[in-house]
Each structure stands twice: as C-alpha cells, then as structure tokens.
Fold:
Amino acid sequence: MASVRRDLAELSRRGLLRGAMGLAGLAALGPVFSPRLLAQALPPGDPFRLGVAAGDPYPDGFVIWTRLAPDPLAPDGGMPPHPVPVAWEVAEDPGFRSIAAAGQALARPEWAHSLHVEVQGLRPHRPYFYRFRLHGLASPTGHARTAPSATAGADFRLVTAGCQHYEHGLFTAWRHIAREEVDLVFHYGDFIYEYAGRPVGAVSAGRSTIRSHAGGETFSLAEYRTRYAQYRLDPDLAAASAAHAFAVTFDDHEVANNWTGAVGGRGEAGLEFDLRKAAAFQAWYEHMPVRRTALPQGPRITAHRRLDFGRHVALHLLDTRGARDDQPCGDGTKPPCAEVARADAQVLGPAQEAWLLDSAATRPATWQVLAQQVPMFARTFPNGAIGMDKWDGYPAARARLLHGLHSRGATNLVVLSGDVHSAYAATVAAEAEGPALACEFTASSISSEGDGSEQRRGTAALLAANPHIAFHNNRRGYALQHFTGRHCFATFRALPFVSRPGAPVEDRARFVVAAGDVALHPA
Ligand SMILES: [Fe+2]
Structure:
C-alpha cells in the first residue's frame, strides 16, 4: 500500500488533469503517472461496458463520465481494488483529429472506478465529442454541447424525461431521444427503481414483468451499484446517454418509494434510513455525470443548482425530496385532512427555497425554468382527492414559492415535472381561485407502468373538474421544450407500446406559451 500512496502523492503533485495536450493515448502521458500505476494488470474484457455520459454544461465545458466495469453486475464491476489511471480526450470532430482538451484522471475503487472529469477551456454553444482510453481500449464516443454564453440570444431545446422502470417496459423512448436535435436532456429522476426482481411474466398491479431486475430490493451500496449497472447496460439508454449532455436530478426511487427528508416511504427513519440514503446517494453520484458540488456527504447531498443557457433560459434544478416534510394525511391519494393546510409546509426546505428565490431574482433570463420532480399544478380528482406526494399535499409551500418568485420579477415561469407516469400540460396557480402564475409540462414515463393507454379511467372527469389542465395522455414517452426570446414551445411525444421492440414515436400534442403570459395555446 505504501507504494500506491507514493504513486498517489506523485499524482497530486503533478496534477491529475492536463488540458489541451493533443494526446493520442495514455502512453503519451507516461510522465504524469508512475510506471507502477501504469503497469498494473487489469482483468480481461471491455472496461467501458457501462458507456459514457456528459452533464451540467457550462459555456466553457461540461462533465464527462464513465465507470470502469468489465463485469458490470459484479459488486466491484470486476475491477481490482486499486486506483487506475484513464486518459480522456475532447475533440471538435468525431474522428478526434482536432483535440480541444485532453488529460487523465484516476478511477478510484472508493467511487466504484467512476470518473467525473470537469472539462474546461471549451468554446460556448458548440458540439464536442469525447472518449476515454485505457490500455489501448477506447470507450464509446460521446457527444455534448456547451451552453451558450450568458449574453447570447440563442434558442434552447431540451428533452424532459424520467421514470424508467426496467421491468415494466423497453427503453425504446431513449432510442428516439438519442436522435432528437436538442441541447440538453433533463432527467428528473427514477433513473432506477429499487424494487426486488420479479420473474418474467409475473403480474403485479396489472403490469407484466417483461425483463427482471437482478437481485432483491436495494439497500446496500453494492446492491444500488449493481442496479445502476444493469440499467446502464441497456443499449437504448446508453445511446441517449452518449448522444446528449444531461442535467440529472433524483426523485424517490433512487432511494426508496415516496421517501421525503428523514423518512422512507414505509416509515423507515433514524440511523437505518440514513445508512440506506448514504448508500443510495453514493451509487447515484457514481453513475451520474454531475459536478463535485453534488458529492454526497453520507446521508446528505446538495443536488440543487442552476444552469444558464444564454439570455433566455435559467434552469433551476431542484430537489423536492431531501428536505421535504413527510407527506400529510398518511400519503396516498385521498380527500385532504386538516394537516394539508399547515402554514409552514416544506417541499424544498428553507435553505433551498431561499436559494431559489435569490437565484431567480439575480439571474435575469427570459424564462425561469423550475426543473424538478413532482407536479406543481393542482390535480383535484372528482371525489375531492389530491395526491399527497405532489405539491398538492403542500399548498402553503406552493403558494409561498410562487408568490415569492413573482414578487422578485420571475414572471415567465415554466415548471417541468414527471413522477406520475402520465403527460400533462397545465397552468399553476398559488391559490385555487387565484390567477395562473406559471405553466407546467409534465413528462410521461420512459417505461414505468408498461404500454399504458391514451387516457386513464376517469380522465374525462378529471379534466372537467380541472379546467387549468389543457392536456393529458397516458402513453409512455417524453416532452420536448423549445425556448426562444418570445415563445416557449412544448411537444409531447408518445410511444404506442413498450412491451415489445420497435415502437415508433408519435406526437400527441403541441403547445406554445408567449413570453409575458403563462396561458397555454395549441400550436
Ligand atoms: Fe416513477
């Protein structure tokens, strides 16, 4: 071990990353790593089976990610318990003839040999190609765009997607997303589901298992790692991951169904739930293209942040789980009990809420976009029931946030959400009889709940009782947003099936919102 420590000391002395070297491979970088580290034998097999990803683009760069795992479903990914140096390159062309930045980084066993390189020195609003190299083997090539500079009046396009239950359906939607012409994918969460594997064909809650999770319900770090690896082995997800920069957040199933704050969805709390959160957050970090600001500290993580895309878009990425009050009235969908009216209800928690109000006030942009998880618009079912896990369970928090944003001049507010495995377009009011202060687009799931149907039972009555809901669809799919200096366009794409391969993608609805207004108009 002493020799490894010496090697690492040498590494940190010389610096882990060196930009703009125009290298052809790791051999060209020999002096940076000691011969002992470079000569380490690795197990046979492709170390890049989990693919690549890029994330959190700035005008001068983005994060590039991979995780070395020649045996992805093994607890350690099939890697030996020592650090491994890996070369990386970012180029202006897919043939890597014009290198824009390059260097090397150390994949450490403590982080499951994952790599999160924060590339700098790139030009704004440009496409780039990236890859990793190890012992003569190259990773798949990824593609990502840098953000426009703060003063650029550029259009901005993104996909909103999430909820990818592996057992419920194929990830065909990701194959279609890979081909979309967008600047960014916002993945709101449910990247994995924590549930135990069920045999193929098993039916639960009306949904048939078309492929099985490996292992039981995830609790330990090794179990969460294996689950992420199984999902990232999916070729459709891998294609989308390599095709676009992502901005990721987590929803509930990255930890446990309907968890909030210090409480799991089944009432778990205290040290045991902290241990589960620590394992879940570490595995999430290890498998997501996020910056070091999102490094978890045991059971705590700071995942909220802002990404700027020129003059027109400030994208506020929120965490509606980590500091939220437990759901009122025992969770579920039911008529509200007295607890729903509590005045101090918290969804974001005081620190994140204050940050968001300040962030929206200090970053002028045509569109202030709240990229988050659970629907903010009101959904009152005909029997008076509301979803306690959504913002509907926390009306005082919703009103406080919307009034706070509005009073700070954030008038062009667009909310993005998911979680409910159905697509919606709606407007959002602070109070039931109050004016609309935001518009909202809720993406359906990639695969959760299987093939689905065009409408759910009771949809007509739901829409009649909620005139601010302009659209609902219960197929699987995703949403596209296109922001300009004058308009926000939203397109809902749907797949007619996910239980077998080859589904086409079809448009179900398209809306436009004019800057200065939040009303939804068919487009
Ligand atoms: Fe979900």
